[in-house]
Amino acid sequence: MMGWNLAEENMTLPPSSTDPGWQYNFGIASWVAGTGFYHLPVFLLLFFVPLPFAETCFITVMGILVNLIIVPMVGDGWVIFSYERIKENLSVNNADREGPCFDPEYQDLCIRMTQWNWSFPASTILFIGIMIVFASFSSSVASRRNYTTKRLVRILTMQQKKDREDLLLSIFPKSVAKHMLEKQTSEKLLDSRQSLRDIDAQNYTAARMHQNVTILFTDI
């Protein structure tokens, strides 16, 4: 839709004092300025919308490709930035041919500076597009790193829990070890008499002797 609206504009007209629109305000860069201010601000949402990097890159590249390359090439939009068109435009706007731009010594420099000056909106659009792609890439890398870190922490936590259970089962009788594990993982500590009610008399004494056990894991 943006490309279609842009294609309906006449990109080859020089600026005119009777035209109150983009051409009068921005001169020969009128269609570029109009594109930057009217069509492309919606792409600034890509700075804040958490889309995948591939989708953000595709949307940004296609927007710039359609609005700054395909449509302007079809409509001869970049012709107005040519050396001859700028020279002609200076002659039309300055009928008396006075000023440094009509001095043969400075005319070439004046036209080059005019090209750089009026191409600033297009350079700004390209810069914003590059920043959108860069911000999306950085966000994607950070999200992937956070996901990997959380997944690694979850795996290590599960492995540590399994190692602790195996160690308790190898040190204490099964019933005592099971009771200690249940006591560690329960949300509310139960009274020792109630928690040991189902344990036989032999294991009851051993459990009472090992209520508070500290296990130190070391790499030997």
Automatic annotation (TrEMBL):
Alphabetically sorted, this entry's keywords are: Membrane, Transmembrane, Transmembrane helix
**What domain of life?**
Eukaryota
Query: What stretches pass through the bilayer?
Result: 28-49, 56-81, 122-142
Q: What is this protein called?
A: Uncharacterized protein
Source organism per UniProt: Chloropicon laureae
| Lineage, uppermost ranks | Eukaryota, Viridiplantae, Chlorophyta, Chloropicophyceae, Chloropicales
